[in-house]
Design a protein that fits this description.
single chain; about 450 residues; alpha/beta; Rossmann fold; five-stranded mixed sheet; 12 strands
């Protein structure tokens, strides 16, 4: 049994009920064989064994009272995975599916994603099985205040800096920050994704979606292609999907689909800027369902309980959740003539689907590289808070574009150096691993 296999078997034995974490770990480990052959010091100092074990895991009870006066109880958690290159950094997810295995997978992915940005931030993730859907603002506020009443003692501007994720937007960040400030009596950049008027960065809401499309642009450029005139299927209709669609439209692409947990809409005429503005109002203010789009725009059809990968397209942009492109969806995309898949969500493609894309020579942009724009601008928000400064929209967007272009370049270079030219998944895993692993070696056995 190889060293990589030994480490992976140990992970599975230690946490047998965490399939998403296993998937994330194996995706990285299987890329590292050529690196480990050249650098025996990683094995000697047990870097892999330390890398797959979080530095700290915190779980706690979150009691709160709903609008009818009934006491509700949820579970909160924060996994501080790796701080070798900076304070823990990663989002909070509020969704009924949240469990420790999912938070560990997200924290593990975050460690390498953050390393790829070249900014000094480590990896972490947190959240709760609380579902903000259908809750009043007051219920969400009471939950967030109870959640932060425990979390505050574990975070700080130079310790651990959470952000938003699924179910945690500007409203939730505001309530969380307010409670942190009340409890600590400190105004500091402890949370990112804050409102622009009180410490937030311009471009932060747009950053993940914009960054995904900047990375896609570089992927296509390497193949002599561009976005202009290409048809695109997008999953999701939240923050990432909205701004991914906005940037695709600005580059001349045609957006055909958007979705939510109920199903997807297909608009053959294209979801243009005006229609997208309507979707943003629907989702961000009215908190409605994407099915309403097909009632508003007669050119569209709604497909209940389905994902959009059956729609023929040039480019697929999964922006919803993990493992949303499975084997059948991948085969449908290949059949539909797709030339590129670029991930906006975290690990939205199953390993079997990735193999299908690679066999078909479809350009594949892995999440830990392609969706790093959000955390990159979060780090830029931290920098602005630290210096009590505010950068212009153009400056932040320019830095984001430069960071995403640099991530593509370093992934491409690492893939070629270690014998997998053009494989951005291997390139991202290797490049991120090397930065984190070398920092761990420098800092001793801690």
């Amino acid at each position: 049994m190889s060293y990589v296999d030994e480490v992976f078997e140990r992970v599975k034995r230690r946490d047998p009920d965490q399939p998403e974490f296993h998937q994330a770990v194996w995706e990285v480990l299987e890329s590292l064989a050529p690196v480990l052959e050249l650098h025996t010091e990683y094995r000697e100092y047990r870097v892999l064994e330390r890398l797959v074990e979080p530095e700290r895991m915190i779980t706690f009870r979150v009691p709160w009272t709903d609008d009818r006066g009934r006491v509700q109880v949820n579970r909160g958690m924060r996994v501080e995975f790796n701080s070798a290159i900076g304070p823990y950094k990663g989002g909070l997810r509020f969704h009924p599916s949240v469990n420790l295995g999912i938070i560990k997978f997200l924290g593990f992915e975050q460690t390498f994603k953050n390393a790829l940005t070249t900014l000094p931030i480590g990896g972490g993730k947190g959240g709760s099985d609380f579902d903000p859907k259908g809750k009043s603002d007051n219920e969400v506020m009471r939950f967030c205040q109870s959640f932060m009443s425990e979390l505050f003692r574990h975070i700080g501007a130079n310790i651990d800096v959470p952000a938003g994720d699924i179910g945690v937007g500007g409203r939730e960040i505001g309530y969380l920050f307010g409670q942190y400030k009340r409890l600590t009596r400190r105004w500091e950049g402890v949370l990112t994704g804050k409102g622009h008027g009180w410490g937030g960065s311009l471009i932060r809401p747009e950053a993940t979606g914009y960054g995904q499309v900047y990375f896609l642009r570089e992927m296509l450029k390497a193949r002599g292609e561009d976005i202009d005139g290409k048809t695109c299927t997008i999953s999701g209709s939240g923050n990432v999907a909205q701004f991914c669609a906005e940037k695709v439209i600005s580059y001349g692409g045609k957006v055909l689909t958007m979705s939510d947990s109920g199903g997807f809409v297909h608009d053959p005429d294209g979801i243009d800027a005006e229609k997208l503005a309507w979707v943003m109002e629907l989702k961000n203010n009215r908190r409605g369902r994407i099915s309403e789009y097909a009632k508003k725009f007669k050119s569209a059809s709604y497909y209940t309980g389905k994902r959009p990968w059956s729609v023929a397209c040039d480019i697929a942009l999964p922006c919803a959740t993990q493992n949303e492109i499975e084997k059948a969806g991948a085969k449908a995309l290949v059949k539909g003539g797709t030339i590129a898949v670029c991930e906006g969500a975290n690990m939205p493609t199953t390993p079997e689907a990735v193999e299908i894309f690679q066999a078909a020579k479809i350009a594949f942009g892995p999440a830990k590289a392609a969706n790093a724009g959000g955390v990159a601008v979060s780090a830029l928000e931290m920098a602005q808070n630290a210096y009590f400064s505010e950068w212009s929209r153009e400056e932040v967007d320019g830095r984001l574009d430069s960071i995403m272009t640099g991530i593509h370049a370093q992934c491409d270079a690492a893939a070629e150096k270690y014998g997998h030219a053009g494989d951005l998944l291997v390139g991202a895993n290797v490049s991120g691993f090397l930065k984190v692993a070398n920092a761990m070696l420098d800092q001793g056995v801690v």
